[in-house]
Amino acid sequence: MEKSTDKYLINRLEDGNHLNIVLLSHNAYWPEIQKLDHHFENCNVTVFGSSTSYIKLADNQKREKIENSDLIIFYSSGFYNEKRLTELKDIAFRISNNKNKRVSIGYLYCIPFEQKSDENISEKIKIVSFKNGEEVTEEAYPTPYFSAYDLAELTLAMADSYDSVKQRKLEKKL
Fold it and tell me: Which listed residue, of 1, 54, 107, 108, carries a Cα 20 to 30 Å from 120's Cα?
């Protein structure tokens, strides 16, 4: 049985539409994140710092990009913060209702691999999608080298039954 989130974002990309991603992350991860913008055809990435307050302080041009987002990715160092996840859910829910479209969140607090102690201090990855007032939540666990780029791809995979065959079709020819 397919979930209500199946195929939405992949169909957008295959139909030649744009995938708009808002990414909140510590600036140490930005060089890696830049490649996400170049990985898929029709993919636009807007990057903010690792706090939802950057969204509130955004200028009109960036605010418009936020209002058109399909994915909101939160990837940052530190520990799980329920308040930030709640703020992101509120933003995604509002966008989904205002634009009548699906908006998905990929959320992971983590410590860069080089800075980790032997114990795994990363929390679960949360993938949350909103459409027509419906919320669908799934969870996963990161691997030791899990990156912001991986989080965006996992969000696509979990929100849309994304598979490697479709990924190869969508990747840009380098």
Answer: 54
Q: Is the dihedral of CA 104, 108, 113, 118 positive or negative?
A: negative
- Amino acid (one-letter) located at 154: L
Six-digit token string for 30: 């930005």
For the chain, the straight-line distance linking the first and the last C-alpha, in angstroms and rounded, comes to 36
Strand partners, 130: 103, 135
Residue 40 lies in a domain: yes
| pTM, full prediction | 0.71
Q: Is residue 102 situated within a structural domain?
A: yes
